[in-house]
Specification:
Length: 214
């Protein structure tokens, strides 16, 4: 059996991050038990200058990427289909907002210390893209934390302070120094890198080759 370490540089606000992860997850299921992996999530902020109240998602995408409303609609439809292909439900609504994700990364760093980073990462993706919950509201985050049987008082202390800020910024700085400027980026065994929302077949081929090279 080959055991791989896979670090995923990601932002909860990025739909391709969950599409890519689900492709990886499917590939790993098909490769088991010959190839297994330990998953670790690393922080990335798509919009570090975004104010706390966030911005209407469609307006944000039109302004940031210079696309039309029709192109934005087509992109959402394409993502919705890609989500169905990997068993993830995108439910884009008129009320979705792009927010600054720094507090989410701090909370994920705390959850890692509790052994539930991955569970919280999945819950945040679903909360944002499937259930359209406002992740810039601490009450929403505490409800999600509670659903995972994590300590809500401890989580509130993290959110109400600057806990884990230094760690998150250090991890972001390291990614930047390693020329990672887009997400998702999958780093395997601190040596190989796969970018984007790849398919399960693409991940299978890459992981098998990496495993063979040892």
């Amino acid at each position: 059996m080959n055991k791989l370490q896979i670090d995923i540089v990601s932002d909860v606000m990025c739909p391709w991050c969950i599409v890519g992860y689900k492709g990886l997850e499917s590939a790993l299921k098909q490769l088991a038990p010959d190839i297994e992996a330990t998953i670790n999530w690393l922080p990335f902020e798509l919009n570090p200058q975004m104010p706390a109240e966030g911005q209407d998602l469609q307006q944000h995408l039109i302004e940031k990427y210079g696309i039309t409303e029709q192109q934005s609609k087509q992109n959402r439809e394409m993502l919705t289909q890609r989500g169905k292909d990997v068993d993830f439900d995108f439910n884009f609504s008129q009320h979705m907002r792009m927010i600054n994700s720094f507090d989410l990364h701090r909370l994920l760093a705390w959850a890692k210390d509790q052994g539930k980073q991955h569970e919280l990462q999945m819950a945040l993706f679903s909360a944002h893209f499937t259930n359209n919950l406002a992740l810039n509201e601490h009450a929403t985050l505490i409800t999600i934390v509670d659903s995972l049987d994590l300590d809500t008082a401890a989580a509130k202390d993290v959110l109400d302070s600057d806990a884990y800020a230094t760690q998150v910024r250090a991890e972001q700085k390291l990614s930047s120094e390693n020329d990672i400027h887009a997400v998702p980026t999958f780093i395997i065994n601190n040596k190989y890198s796969i970018s984007g929302g790849q398919t399960a077949d693409a991940f299978k081929q890459a992981l098998k080759q990496i495993a063979q090279e040892g």
